[in-house]
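Case 228 in the screening queue. Each case pairs one protein sequence with one candidate compound; here the compound is zinc ion. For every case the pipeline is the same: read the inputs, emit a complex structure as tokens, and attach any notable structural observations.

Predict complex for case 228.
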Amino acid sequence: MTVFTVDVDWAPEPVIAETLSLFQSHRVKCTLFATHPSKVLDACDRDLFEIAIHPNFNPMLAGQVGDPARVVDELLEMFPEARGVRSHSAAANTPLLQLFRSRGLEYESNLWLPYWDDIKPFRLWNGLMRIPYNWGDDIHLAYGRPFETPQIPTAGSLTVVDFHPVHVYLNTDTTSHYEAARPHYHDADRLHALRNTERAGARTVLLQLLQQKSGGMTLSELAKAQPA
Ligand SMILES: [Zn+2]
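Case 228 output:
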């Protein structure tokens, strides 16, 4: 089973909408980790999409004064339906996991195990379900591996993949391609003009996976399906 997730990462509305449209046209479920208020997210079809939160603790790690609880609470005010969390840059430690649980969240998905064949959700000491993921477009970019051979793990019973709307939109295939486009992050027209149309990229991989799938599960459905 392949389970789809998307880290919204402050993408502009047309870029978010375009990624969602790919899931809609294939009728495949996806969990969206939201970073900011978005009309596109507010309006998305809840039969297909689950909204979870994607808090950013990086400014605090870089020395800015801040309160992790406040970061989480602000996102939960925007998205009170959220049942789960993945931090931006996958930040997680014991106090953060306690914070997530104290806010009633049921699962977190911060553990990446790239290219692992066999992953499964497991319950943490505080009751939070930890759902690892074993493929990410950004992680594949970081490894510098070609998207022609994305190495999506298929041998185990569960594959959890993570995409970013900007990489889907750009069809990003290398870090240098992304870095060249990054100054135009909030300009959907410019990003569209910079889309890679020659080589396989993140979009190619997503479309290949979507064409093999229908239905699927959200992360909260996956968490609920685990033994108590
Ligand atoms: Zn992120």
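Case 228 observations:
- The pocket of zinc ion is lined by residues 7, 9, 54, 88 (CB under 6 Å).
- Residues 13-26 form the longest helix (14 residues).
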